# Entry
Amino acid sequence: MIECFLTNLYSIDVMAPFCIEMKKRGYECHMALDKLFWKLSYGEHFDIQKAIKKADEWGVKLNLRLNYEADIAVTQWRVDWALFGLYKNLKARMSYGVGLNKKTNFAENDFRFDLYFVNGNLEKDVLIKNGVDIERIIQIGSPKLKYQKINYFIQKTKPIITYLPTWDEFNCIDIAIQKLKLFRDKYDIYIKPHPLQSKEDLKKLSQFNLLSKNITLKSVVEFSDIIVGDLKSGVLCECLYFKDIPIFAFTQTKHLQFYYKSYKQFEDIITENKDINLNIRKDKIKLIDYCFSEDKVYNFKVTKISPTIENITELDILKQRLENTYKHKRGEE
# Structure
């Protein structure tokens, strides 16, 4: 039995398709969240009722207590090992999406997991390079994209450019705004914000047509004629999963060194000092099969290496985590 431990509300749209895929392969698989500690685990923004609703929409079971006896516990992003360590058996890390930076996005190079569920050979090669044994890596393609539906349509009056910004210090929103303004006459310009986009960013981007964060990427690719995005974001590779669409990637010049050469699959890389030339249509390196490739057989028989917390009660865990939270607020180490 596989239990997917939610780390935030957004991970449902990755975990639920994973559960569907695992069930098709004969495994019992469901999602779970820690109701007892949820405010500490997920933050005040996490809404349990919304999580239940999203799970129902996917048709995937969501438990409100963790089953520490699960054969495999799967998580994403940064994990609280004081809680996740209560799982007694195999612990797995699942990729949120394909990134093009030189560092793996697997919990900041945290290699304490027994298994790694990745989208394909690109991420597998990164993990192997960082010392993870190949038998611990399972390529699952991208259930997140495989089971996506089109949930939004646009009646076109002009060709459409859609910008997909990221949310952190690698975003290129200021660069993109200046470049995209030049195409307003011939194109309708839409923005699909990142779920974690700041209010400040949204205010800047509101001069264009802002889309809901709930619109699927498959919908965006379907109605768009050109995609532009931040090079750091794995969403650009995901667009190509659906169809061969022209993609231009923004990056700050100072960050260009952090990316793989795989960005050559895009039309062009746009920096502060480089303009967009929409007439470019050069030969691209096709890496979609490399980014999204499945193993024919999933083998979970690996030696356990992940830590497990022994002889400790849930109350002890709660006290420990509350104290850590108070120390953090006081600025203590």
Q: What stands out?
A: The first helix runs from residue 12 to 24.
